Amino acid sequence: MGDDAARLLGRMLADGDGILRLEPTWVARDFLPPGRRLGLPDDAYDVGERGFLCERWLGSTTRADNRVGPPDEGLSYLVGEHGERLTLRAAVETDPVTIMGREYAAAHPAGLGRLAKLFDYADRLPYHVHLPQEYASIVGCRSKDEAYYFPEGVDMGAHPESFFGVHPWIARDRRGDVLLPYLRDWDSDLILRHARAEKLVADEGFDIPSGVLHAPGTALTLELQEDSDVLAMFQALNAGRIISKDLLFKDVRAEDRAASGERFPLNFVDWELNGDPFFYENRHLSPRPVAGAEQVGGNQWWIFYNNRKFTGKKLVVRPGGTYTATDAGAYNLLVWSGTGTVGGQEVRGGEPGMDELLVVHDAATRGVPVVNTGTADLVVFTFFGPDINVDAPAIEPWGAAT
């Protein structure tokens, strides 16, 4: 496929002048009902044995680690002017220098290193944890730091609050024995009484490192994360049914499960982060203006920051305005609302197939004109991989974790 992929990618790059269109990528999950806010026809969400379409992955080079599903589930496809298709993963593998830039590609041989997605559930996600790198490496994976942003103008669902961490007294003594009975019995959702809930507010979000227990609420969520799908579920009963206990051990080796049973996944919990009495202050994200970014036509704000592994921005271009977006490296984008052009490519928010692009390194660094051709704001979210935006802000730490 190498030579064919290179020729196809070359044509796409030439046709788009370094700006490539991405097809929408739908991902099914079988443990929760869908929120039905992804813009699909109502009868499209149910996909049989695979479950329901509950997520849309954006600019993805990561395969979804599902029990059943097509072999390319989760992988984004680039699409050419005449319908030609190439996975973004293949494009990066074929020509990492053109996609990511020579210096960046040399320093990041694993690729783009981030995954953006929309997740859309009718019930709260079960309480779970993502493996820190120490344990992810054991099963040949990356850790999964992640962050959330809740777009404006969308119904927040039945449970617009998320549970995070554990009560500080549990973390202080690293009292995994408090949680262990729930993992062994695997018959309730009562483990949540040991966590703290935060209300979800539109145009805000949270930064959630690996090792932090969390049960995300029902707000339609824009998520940016490391390109990994590792997890351990800690909550048995959710949305009226018992989840398969196999998800507690999804990323646990058979020998570790045999030796330690339900106690082993407790190793994934970072007690210091989970019990931080200033968890909200240290993890809450609200938009911050990008320094020097304001132009006559619009402005940019950081919405994903506080983590060098990934960053993201919100760009708003006013009706009739033009904004030149100049960035430090390659990125993918989602047009949330409005109509216009990005580097000459027509875009329409809320219309899958016309709302998602990849901007390669050279185009990003020389500047991309974004034009609003409509009568409402053109709102664009942009997603960057590790070490691109080294000037992104960080939260000034509050207090000291227990």
Descriptive overview:
- The protein is an alpha+beta fold.
- Among the domains are: 161 residues, Jelly Rolls, CATH 2.60.120; 97 residues, Jelly Rolls (Sandwich), CATH 2.60.120.
- Helix content is 18%, strand content 28%.
- It has eleven helices and 27 strands.
- The strands form six sheets. It has a nine-stranded antiparallel β-sheet.
- A hairpin with a 2-residue loop joins strand 23 and strand 24.
- The protein is globular and about 60 Å long.
- The termini are far apart.
- The mean pLDDT is 96.
Key traits:
seven-stranded antiparallel β-sheet; 402 residues; alpha+beta; 18% helix
Cα shape: globular
**Number of distinct beta strands:** 27
Tally of DSSP helical segments: 11
Radius of gyration: 21 Å
CATH architecture of the domain at 125-285: Sandwich
